[in-house]
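Chain and backbone:
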Amino acid sequence: MATIPKVVKDLIEAFERLPGIGPKTAQRLTYHLLHAPKEEAAALAHAALDLKEKTVLCEVCFNISEKSPCEICSDLSRERSIVAVVEDPLDALALEKAGFKGLYHVLHGSISPLENIGPEELRIRELLPRLKDGTVKEIILATNPTMEGEATAMYIDRLISPLGVKVTRIARGLPVGGDIEYADETTLNRALEGRKEY
């Protein structure tokens, strides 16, 4: 039986630790790099190091950036009276692609008692100073429609509501192009609850 060299095993195991990468994908990536030109492997290693060395969290919104404050927080043409609260930087990126022109606040997770993640482990308290000068008129709770996302949204709503800032929640329901017959009951209920005049 042939043995796999330690350096190959080590890279396979390193890839397996990444989210969404299973054993087979880790093996394919490793063997791709093994047969790729040395420059390709070097570029990947260099990009991974740059990611760790050249990114920071924005001191205002806690999004990932190369400088602080980030480009979005520094952009005076953005709608400064609306802040979308999201769980992760990828959520902010998705809203950005959808054309959102307000500001963001990135929590870096959601409240999850089963994983011992409480409000203290998130960037929730850092949102409050942003509401003091009266510039922010609306907080959009754009957390995921999961139990953890809902718990996080409810917690933030209770925290902010006494401050007199309008708190809204992103709509939930059927995706564009989806068929009603294939939707689950919870999605249909939310779609009916969130209906609006045509």
In short: The domain at 60-169 is CATH 3.40.1360.10 (Dna Topoisomerase Vi A Subunit; Chain: A, domain 2).
